[in-house]
Amino acid sequence: MKFDDLGLSPETLKAVKERGYESPTPIQAQAIPAIQMTRDVVGLAQTGTGKTASFTLPMIDALSGGRAKMRMPRSLVLEPTRELAAQVAENFDVYGKYHKLNKALLVGGESMQDQKKLLDQGVDVLIATPGRLLDLFERGSILLNDIKILVIDEADRMLDMGFIPDIEKIVSLIPPMRQTLLFSATMPNEIKKLTEKFLNNPKEISVAPAASPAETVEQFLVKVSNKNKNAALDQLLKQEKVKNAFIFLNRKRDVDTVSKWLKEKGYKAAPLHGDMPQVKRTATLQQFKNDEIQLLVCSDVAARGLDIKDVSHVFNYDVPMSADDYVHRIGRTGRAGKTGRAWMFASEGDEKYMDAIQKLIKREFIAFDLKGSKTDQESAISKDRKGDDKVKKPKKSKSSYSDKKPEDWDEELEGDTFGDDIPAFLR
Ligand code: AMP
Question: Ligand 1 pocket, 21 CB below 6 A?
Answer without folding.
Answer: yes
